[in-house]
Amino acid sequence: MSNETIEALIAQLDVVDGSPGADALRARSYELLRPLPDGLVVDVGCGTGRAVAELADRGARATGIDVSDQMIALARQRWPHGEFHGGDACALPLRDGQATGYRADKVIHALPDPGRALAEARRVLAPDGRIVLCGQDWDTFVIDSTDPELTRTIVHRRADLVPSPRAARRYRNLLLDAGFRDVTVEVHTAVFTDDSFLPVLTNLAETCREHGAITAAEAEAWIADQQERARTDRLFAAVPLFMAAATNP
Ligand SMILES: C[S@@+](CC[C@H](N)C(=O)[O-])C[C@H]1O[C@@H](n2cnc3c(N)ncnc32)[C@H](O)[C@@H]1O
After folding, report:
1. Best of 7, 41, 107 for a ligand 1 pocket test (most atoms within 8 Å of beta carbon)
2. Domain layout of the chain by residue ranges
3. Angle, alpha carbons 147-204-64 (nearest 5°)
4. 106 lines ligand 1 (CB under 6 A)
5. Distance from the CA of 36 to the CA of which of 48, 130, 214, 238 falls in 20 to 30 A?
6. Whole-number pLDDT of residue 5
7. Is the confidence at residue 173, as pLDDT, over 80?
8. What's the CATH number for 3-137+163-191+241-247?
9. CB-based burial, 103-142: b 16+ in 10 Å, e otherwise
10. 0.90 cut: is pTM over it?
11. Ligand 1: does its nearest atom lie under 6 Å from the Cβ of 45?
12. Distance 26 CA to ligand 1 centre (A)
């Protein structure tokens, strides 16, 4: 990822982390992980590291792994007491059965072959270890707009640029196919109504423009509409967030 792309991603992650309900959602993921006092919980695709710090605060032994050196550097800077390592979700720097918990938040959609990552999750998890996957389905962003047709184009064309855009709706089947048991799925909808969500909306349109999916004039008009909505308290976006949990046999 280019520096610009990663900076935009960090800005968007900060928006999501600061949104109403985000704390409760992460707390729910920790609850579903059921961390054991002496067990290792791995947060795969840990990004800027908040979950690792929060798990450690709850008494868990947590480690964050991310493929991006920049993310790992920022995570270490933000959470100096946290443990973070570079590594790939499909080749984790962990021994067989070393972890009792595996968490991946907004990560599985970034992988071209989610099944490989889940096979790797099974390898590093001990028997009865828990896995929790969270994330959005890129085809189901609900955004009020003055131009619904252009909005549909933006949402779908942006989704087409994600390696596995509909991974979240497949969490249950992916977990079952990988051999996990006791699979559960919850859906929590995040609602955004103010200008804090503008960086995410702007990125949707700008990314489509960069890839030729919409024109510069369309991107400009669509972003201006969202900015005006934020200014007049008429911005509305809803994003269903899927959370699946399961147990390693
Ligand atoms: C959308 S961010 C989510 C970060 C964090 N989990 C959160 O919820 O804020 C996705 C993260 O997954 C990381 N990532 C992408 N592909 C990966 C891979 N193959 N292995 C490990 N991490 C990966 C990215 O570098 C990025 O930090």
Report:
1. 107
2. 3-137+163-191+241-247
3. 150
4. yes
5. 48
6. 84
7. yes
8. 3.40.50.150
9. bbbbbbbbbeebeebbebbbbbbbeebbbbbbbbbbebbe
10. yes
11. yes
12. 15
